[in-house]
Amino acid sequence: NAGVTQTPKFRVLKTGQSMTLLCAQDMNHEYMYWYRQDPGMGLRLIHYSVGEGTTAKGEVPDGYNVSRLKKQNFLLGLESAAPSQTSVYFCASSGNEQFFGPGTRLTVL
Amino acid sequence: DQQVKQNSPSLSVQEGRISILNCDYTNSMFDYFLWYKKYPAEGPTFLISISSIKDKNEDGRFTVFLNKSAKHLSLHIVPSQPGDSAVYFCAASSGTYKYIFGTGTRLKVLA
């Protein structure tokens, strides 16, 4: 039982490049989330999903897209990375409580 | 508009003493509150929660108090241990599985 896993753990992008962050959970949770954590800003919700095939915008969705084609996976895409997207990204899934992945540290140069 | 606020970015406490972390919220629709603990380079981990129908919930050394009229909750850790040194986030939700997090308080327990 791995819980919530995220790949990759680290990534450096150049401005304008694209990438996809993968989140996987093995707890059969319906709800999944993507957050970003920035100094002094806490955890801010980017997008979330209440079930397979559904997604919804969170607090800071601009510049990101998501997909939930399979219940266990939640993908976060950056189509054209910007330096403002330099952050640590956390995925989470929830039943009665949220379980977080270990995070992805993304730097956009 | 910060709906969940943790106004103390850091707190230092002596080992064995009580740590009190505070959290304020503005949305009266919030009915479920949680505390998370985060170590460096790891994801947050759930610590303790409280429903709005209660004013106190206790789990070992951790107690969360909720004052709905003041829109305030606090986490008490007693006795504090060096391993409690971490960043603590409070979070709130309003009948959905969407959580709003505070900015975090860094607790340092001094040996």
Write the layout of secondary structure elements.
The complex is a heterodimer of chains A (109) and B (111).
Chain A: E1 4-7, E2 10-13, E3 19-25, E4 31-38, E5 42-51, E6 54-57, E7 65-67, E8 73-78, E9 87-94, E10 98-100, E11 104-108
Parallel strand pairs in A: 2-11
Antiparallel strand pairs in A: 1-3, 3-8, 4-5, 4-9, 5-6, 7-8, 9-10, 9-11
Chain B: E1 4-5, E2 10-14, E3 19-25, E4 32-38, E5 45-51, E6 56-59, E7 62-67, E8 72-77, E9 86-93, E10 100-101, E11 105-110
Parallel strand pairs in B: 2-11
Antiparallel strand pairs in B: 1-3, 3-8, 4-5, 4-9, 6-7, 7-8, 9-10, 9-11
The N- to C-terminal Cα distance of chain A equals 36 Å
- What sort of overall outline of chain B do the alpha carbons produce when their principal axes are compared? globular
Low-confidence stretches of chain B at least 5 residues in length (pLDDT < 50)?
none
Derived structural class of chain A: mainly beta
**Structural category of chain B:** mainly beta
Number of beta strands of chain A: 11
Cα radius of gyration of chain A in angstroms: 13 Å
Please summarize the sheet with the most strands of chain A: 7 strands, mixed
What overall geometry of chain A do the principal axes of the alpha carbons give? globular
- Helix percentage range of chain B: under 10%
- Number of helices in the DSSP assignment of chain A: 0
